[in-house]
Amino acid sequence: MSGIPAPLITGSIAYLVLGVVLIGLVQAARGVGKLDKNDAGTGNVVVVISVFSMWLFWLCAWMHQWHPLISPIYEG
Question: What stretches pass through the bilayer (predicted)?
Fold first, then answer.
């Protein structure tokens, strides 16, 4: 049994970093007074759900292309 492919780890780490940066931006907006506590909480939920959904979509697209069931047929 082989390990987890490197592109899968790299992409997952990239989405994790994106999520952390976006949550940091929400907290920074709360710190400077642009958002109150409730709006920052809603922003955190939106960020987490959005980043997870984007990662899941990317993961599905990557996995579908990893070992295709049907290979292309070239006519020519």
Answer: 12-33, 45-64
Report yes or no on 31 lying in a domain. Answer: yes
- Residue-level pLDDT at 15: 98
Number of H helices, E strands in the chain: 2, 0
Say what the pTM is: 0.83
- Three-state secondary-structure class, residue 4: coil
1 in a domain, yes or no? no
Q: How many CA atoms lie within 13 A of 16 on its CB side?
A: 6
Which pLDDT belongs to residue 12?
97
How is 13-28 classified by DSSP, letter by letter? HHHHHHHHHHHHHHHH
What is the C-alpha to C-alpha distance for residues 51 and 44, in angstroms, rounded to an integer?
Answer: 11
Q: How many domains does the chain contain in total?
A: 1
